[in-house]
């Protein structure tokens, strides 16, 4: 007899994002540029010195201290995990759970809701207002639900816009619960909620190395919070959850932080070029972005345009289930952006 899974599990589709070998893979908001040679040499040297027959530092002390110094925060309030998604899961394990509620503001990062479900936390949706902005009305509706956790994504994925910091503070000030501000794309634009931490101990800022640090393959995420929140995360984490290899990669990335930041301007320029060209195309609606991607609505069905682009070697993200009729394209290298724009022009002309 096969074991019975938790109720509803087999009605849930596993998370998927196509990983295809194409000329321009612009669907998962990765950094389009490879790691600098100096970083790779530094990391290789650090890995050679690791004692991999021993368990890693359970507290990731050196990496947390280096992150805290870079962010101007305290090490005791700095936490590291395997990608920002694991940070989010640990926060939901600590502050969510059966009988507790999390509020999300769609359209937003789909994994906020998925991770809450994984942690047996009920999810309530409060849709964003015009321009995909979080406003006073949305905050009031969220507060009326009395959730234990509220997610704010800024810059928001998939829409690209940053959320007003004063509205985020209003939510944190009034909510008797945890406010998680997901800042995976903050290096590309928008204003960080980090200065609010000193005034609102119920606020947590979550970030990642996957985007601006070009380390999507290393799976490093972190959060900045009060020491009390970090102590709660220590209670739910698995032992030795951050490998010695991951810690070494994070420390090497921070040593080469200036090199990583140097490419941000290139990414922003390609993002802005995409936005400008799309807005000049007849019938295309493109939304402003503070992230490293652009959300746009073509004048033809999104699935049809997605397939036409893929046939031409360009992979984007079909997000029509989240934002009606929309696709999302990551800002790639100039050559990749050229391929996308040329392919899109061909698709829309046929």
Helix and strand topology:
Elements: E1 24-25, H1 37-48, H2 61-71, E2 78-81, H3 83-95, E3 101-104, H4 110-118, E4 122-125, H5 136-144, E5 149-153, H6 165-174, E6 178-182, E7 203-208, E8 221-224, H7 227-236, H8 244-255, H9 257-262, H10 264-280, E9 285-286, E10 293-297, H11 302-311, E11 314-315, E12 317-318, E13 327-330, H12 334-349
Parallel strand pairs: 1-11, 3-4, 3-5, 5-6, 6-7
Antiparallel strand pairs: 2-8, 7-8, 9-10, 10-13, 12-13
Helix pairs in contact: 1-8, 2-8, 3-4, 3-7, 5-6
What does this structure look like?
It is built from twelve helices and 13 strands. By secondary structure, it is α/β, with parallel strands linked by helices. A seven-stranded mixed β-sheet has the order 2-8-7-6-5-3-4, sandwiched between helices. Helix 1 packs antiparallel against helix 8 and helix 2 (about 60-70) packs parallel to helix 8. It starts with about 25 loop residues before the first strand and ends with a helix.
Structure, briefly:
By secondary structure, the chain is an alpha/beta fold.
Question: What structural keywords apply?
Answer:
350 residues; alpha/beta; seven-stranded mixed sheet; four-stranded antiparallel sheet; 12 helices; 13 strands; 39% helix; globular
């Amino acid at each position: 007899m096969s074991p019975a899974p938790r109720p509803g599990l087999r009605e849930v589709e596993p998370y998927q994002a196509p990983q295809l070998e194409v000329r321009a893979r612009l669907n998962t908001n990765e950094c389009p540029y490879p790691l600098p040679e100096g970083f790779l040499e530094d990391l290789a040297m650090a890995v050679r010195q690791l004692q991999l027959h021993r368990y890693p530092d359970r507290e990731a002390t050196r990496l947390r201290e280096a992150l805290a110094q870079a962010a101007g925060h305290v090490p005791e309030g700095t936490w590291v995990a395997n990608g920002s998604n694991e940070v989010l899961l640990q926060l939901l394990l600590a502050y969510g759970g059966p009988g507790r509620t999390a509020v999300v503001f769609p359209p937003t990062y789909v994994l906020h809701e998925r991770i809450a479900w994984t942690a047996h936390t009920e999810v309530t949706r409060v849709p964003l207002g015009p321009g995909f902005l979080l406003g006073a009305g949305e905050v009031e509706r969220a507060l009326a639900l009395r959730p234990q956790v509220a997610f704010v994504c800024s810059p928001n994925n998939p829409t690209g816009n940053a959320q007003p910091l004063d509205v985020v503070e209003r939510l944190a000030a009034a909510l008797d619960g945890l406010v998680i501000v997901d800042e995976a794309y903050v290096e590309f634009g928008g204003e960080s909620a980090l200065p609010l931490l000193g005034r609102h101990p119920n606020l947590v800022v979550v970030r990642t190395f996957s985007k601006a640090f070009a380390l999507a393959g290393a799976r490093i995420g972190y959060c900045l919070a009060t020491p009390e929140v970090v102590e709660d995360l220590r209670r739910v984490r698995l032992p030795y959850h951050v490998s010695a290899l991951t810690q070494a990669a994070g420390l090497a990335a921070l040593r080469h932080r200036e090199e990583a930041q140097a490419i941000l301007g290139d990414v922003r320029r390609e993002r802005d070029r995409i936005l400008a060209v799309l807005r000049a195309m007849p019938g295309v609606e493109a939304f402003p972005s503070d992230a490293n991607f652009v959300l746009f609505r073509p004048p033809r069905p999104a699935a049809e345009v997605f397939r036409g682009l893929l046939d031409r070697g360009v992979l984007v993200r079909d997000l029509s289930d989240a934002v009606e009729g929309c696709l999302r394209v990551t800002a790639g290298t100039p050559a990749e952006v050229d391929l996308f724009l040329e392919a899109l022009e061909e698709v829309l002309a046929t």
